[in-house]
Design a protein that fits this description.
CATH superfamily: 4'-phosphopantetheinyl transferase domain
Radius of gyration: 17 Å
Number of strands: 12
Structural class: alpha+beta
CATH architecture: Alpha-Beta Complex
CATH class: Alpha Beta
Largest sheet: 5 strands, antiparallel
Oligomer: single chain
Number of domains: 1
CATH topology: Ribosomal Protein L22, Chain A
Shape: globular
Strand content: 25-35%
Strand order of the largest sheet: 8-12-11-10-9
Number of helices: 3
């Protein structure tokens, strides 16, 4: 049985970005088994090398849905009606296998584009921009809190801001309680700040009308400043 969620894209003018969402395939969907030896036709060989290390079937399906969402966002961002997904590799590990910020490659050349991916149990999302570093997060339900905070909208904003990469390095873990989220009541916009950003708060937007995602947040770096 497959999900009724259909792939969707939308422009986010304030972030100079495109967002795409794709359903995570249901268990038993043909061609999505973790042990499959066949690379999906829309996945680049370099991506498949990363996917093959994922032995959990659910994690593999989520990973693939994230790649498909990212390529939908890229196609809209680049305005390419003939965009070929299998020729674009979204790589999130370095040559030693360490996790890195996602990068986009075509024909052995890295493209100057910023992309971020996220997934929940049912939905994967991706955001792409040529202008700003961007971050996205999907939260299905309440998450283990920090200092008593279990609100999904808070956690999603913190992680989306972390993914922007304004302070992050490969070796620096995500510490949710170090990020402060401010949001006016019932508003879809807010800010996220961190002590290392020296007073520079990142904007965040919550999208509450995305099927399959109780909470989806995006963030971006408006002026490209980074912390020390």
């Amino acid at each position: 049985m497959t999900s009724a969620i259909t792939p969707a894209t939308r422009a986010l003018p304030e972030a100079a970005a495109w967002l795409a969402t794709v359903a995570v395939a249901a268990d038993g969907t043909p061609g999505w088994h973790a042990a499959s030896a066949h690379r999906p036709a829309d996945i680049h060989p370099a991506e498949w090398l990363e996917a093959e290390v994922l032995t959990d079937p659910a994690r593999r399906r989520q990973w693939l849905a994230g790649r498909r969402a990212a390529k939908l966002a890229l196609a809209r961002l680049l305005g390419d009606e003939d965009f070929e997904p299998a020729l674009h590799a979204i790589r999130s590990r370095d040559r030693f296998g360490h996790p890195t910020r996602p990068t986009v490659w075509r024909a052995g050349r890295r493209l100057d584009v910023h992309v971020s991916l996220a997934h929940g149990d049912r939905l994967a999302a991706a955001i792409a921009s040529l202008v700003h570093r961007v971050g996205v997060d999907v939260v299905d339900a309440a998450v283990p809190g920090h200092d008593g905070d279990r609100e999904p909208w808070v956690f999603s904003a913190r992680e989306a801001a972390y993914k922007v990469g304004a302070i992050a390095t490969r070796d620096e873990p995500f510490r949710p309680d170090e990020w402060r989220v401010e949001r006016a009541a019932a508003q879809p916009h807010g800010t996220v700040s961190h002590h290392r950003l020296r007073g520079h708060a990142l904007p965040v937007r919550w999208l509450g009308d995305v099927p399959g995602a109780p909470v989806l947040a995006v963030s971006w770096n408006r002026d490209e400043r980074s912390a020390a």
